[in-house]
User: Which sequence fits this backbone?
């Protein structure tokens, strides 16, 4: 019996579709789904925008670090992370030990358009497009440490999920021990 964890961790900028893709992917793989933002909100008993407004970004980042430790217990899950979650020294290395890390990448313009469409994103408040673009550029160095990168700009949800599943199968096949032929 193969005991390797099947955990898949989605990383990427705001608007990358991590929540939607994560939910569909979990269903396809028969795994549970969890979001780091939901874990934080549940621990604090408050939604993310309220945590930012009342305690500031630094407190939120501290909570993200605490939740990173809790992910050890989320084996065989699909985990959707907040856009800044992997963007601190050491976080990507930790995530890579917990499962297969998948970067949902896209062109900045597409991400910005999608992220601005839905409100409730404190990191967009009071920041102009250039500032958000600078944040995106700075974060790429972290995201690009993922095991897999899926370029999603021109793909729908189904196509992204199919591509991830295909890439995961390829990785599994390559990692499988080569046994005697029967
Ligand atoms: C953040 C992204 C948000 C959320 C928080 C901070 C960020 O998640 O974690 O508002 O720093 O990029 P999404 O990436 O799901 O929007």
Assistant:
């Amino acid at each position: 019996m193969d005991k390797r964890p099947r955990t898949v961790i989605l990383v990427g900028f705001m608007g990358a579709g991590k929540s939607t893709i994560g939910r569909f992917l979990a269903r396809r793989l028969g795994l549970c789904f969890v979001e780091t933002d939901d874990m934080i909100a549940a621990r604090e008993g408050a939604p993310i925008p309220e945590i930012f407004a009342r305690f500031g970004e630094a407190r939120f980042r501290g909570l993200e670090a605490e939740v990173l430790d809790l992910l050890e217990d989320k084996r065989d899950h699909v985990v959707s992370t907040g856009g800044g979650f992997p963007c601190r020294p050491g976080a990507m290395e930790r995530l890579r030990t917990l499962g297969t890390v998948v970067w949902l990448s896209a062109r900045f313009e597409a991400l910005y358009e999608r992220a601005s469409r839905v409100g409730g994103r404190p990191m967009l408040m009071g920041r102009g497009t250039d500032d958000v673009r600078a944040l995106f550029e700075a974060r790429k160095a972290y995201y690009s440490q993922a095991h897999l990168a899926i370029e999603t700009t021109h793909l729908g949800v189904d196509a992204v999920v199919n591509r991830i599943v295909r890439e995961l199968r390829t990785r599994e096949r390559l990692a499988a021990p080569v046994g005697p032929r029967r």
Q: What stands out?
A: Residues 14, 18, 37, 48, 82-84, 121-123 surround shikimate-3-phosphate (CB under 6 Å).
